[in-house]
């Protein structure tokens, strides 16, 4: 019977977490699940309560800060030209060691081949290896 009480408590706490969003009730729900697991071994009620308390406190001080940090840290938006490195793009004008053009990030970029002996025809799909000033250095897509 104790297992069901702990499972219901875990469910109620997890649902309460949806309303609050602070991860505190979620840690308590984790403690209730741990107590439910221990309860399956038919231990005394005081052992279940101690497992609930220790697990809840442990999760609150170890797991909760990591979760909050991950949730509250905004992803950084890289708007530099280095963010374009690694893109797979089409060739729109034949590219050789002297130049050519590709469509990169919705605009037309000048490009040159990384290998001076390599030429890329219109329609070929290539990878941007690096950005050299205003020129994309490309190589064949894998």
From TrEMBL:
<feature type="domain" description="NfeD-like C-terminal">
    <location>
        <begin position="82"/>
        <end position="140"/>
    </location>
</feature>
<keyword id="KW-0472">Membrane</keyword>
<dbReference type="InterPro" id="IPR002810">
    <property type="entry name" value="NfeD-like_C"/>
</dbReference>
<keyword id="KW-1133">Transmembrane helix</keyword>
<keyword id="KW-0812">Transmembrane</keyword>
<protein>
    <submittedName>
        <fullName>Nodulation efficiency protein D</fullName>
    </submittedName>
</protein>
<dbReference type="GO" id="GO:0005886">
    <property type="term" value="C:plasma membrane"/>
</dbReference>
<dbReference type="InterPro" id="IPR052165">
    <property type="entry name" value="Membrane_assoc_protease"/>
</dbReference>
<dbReference type="Pfam" id="PF01957">
    <property type="entry name" value="NfeD"/>
</dbReference>
<feature type="transmembrane region" description="Helical">
    <location>
        <begin position="44"/>
        <end position="63"/>
    </location>
</feature>
<dbReference type="InterPro" id="IPR012340">
    <property type="entry name" value="NA-bd_OB-fold"/>
</dbReference>
């Amino acid at each position: 019977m104790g297992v069901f009480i702990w499972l219901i408590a875990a469910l109620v706490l997890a649902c309460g977490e949806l309303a609050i969003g602070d991860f505190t009730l979620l840690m308590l729900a984790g403690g209730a699940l741990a107590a439910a697991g221990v309860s399956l071994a038919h231990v005394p009620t005081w052992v279940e309560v101690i497992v609930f308390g220790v697990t809840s406190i442990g999760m609150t001080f170890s797991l909760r800060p990591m979760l909050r940090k991950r949730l509250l840290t905004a992803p950084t938006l890289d708007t530099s030209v280095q963010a374009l490195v690694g893109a797979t793009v089409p060739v729109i004008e034949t590219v050789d060691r002297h130049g050519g053009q590709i469509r990169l990030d919705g605009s037309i970029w000048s490009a040159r081949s990384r290998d001076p002996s390599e030429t890329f025809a219109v329609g070929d799909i290539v990878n941007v290896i690096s950005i050299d000033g205003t020129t994309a250095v490309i190589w064949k897509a894998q």
